Task: structure prediction
Amino acid sequence: LVTERARTFVMASNLHLTETVDGLVVLDRSNDSVHNLNSTAAMVLYLADGTLDQLGIAEELCLALGLDESPINHVTEALDQLCRIGLVSERIT
Result:
């Protein structure tokens, strides 16, 4: 039997992060690419420390921003984009 395993997210190494007024500029030293992240994606990237899953990241954002509803859709979209461009990877625990 295959059981559902927890999936967390972890930020890639070799990143140089520079905060901006409206988000974050990320230099990926592994391939010399530069990415401009909006504030939501930047917060998701910072929270991708290997301990939180999608729901955990959404809950942290909800608390930090004082939101009435979980931003799970925005978190899912940001994680998909961050994984696609290689700034975050999914870890099965």
Notes: The first strand starts at residue 7 and ends at 11. The beta strands are 7-11, 15-20, 23-28, 33-38, 88-92. The helical segments are 39-47, 54-65, 72-84. The chain is about 35% helix and 30% strand.
